[in-house]
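Please check this record.
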Amino acid sequence: MQKLSTAYTMYFNLSRERSGALFQGKFKAKDVNSDEYLKYLFSYIHLNPSELTNSRNKEKFLSSYSYSSYSDYYEGNRDIECVLMPSEFPNYFLDRNKFQQYIQEWIRYKYTVEVGA
């Protein structure tokens, strides 16, 4: 990860004729040592872009947001899908119905906690 970060920083600085750090602090890594933590991370990553909208229909926004892999796991209809490695995840992430159900549960939970609905 450090090599990637350094290479991108060098490219960015050269292309914009600037110098200095782009990212603050060191890269931190944490082992994913349980299924529950993996499910949480998977949902967190896919729901993070939903913070960009005030719309109540978060799923519709997520499926149209081109910078997320949400639609690749749920709909599986983009060419960029070939970059992903879903086979590295447990099977319950590959079942589109279960994936959608899990995301919906997190959206309901997040909405209830944040809004108090």
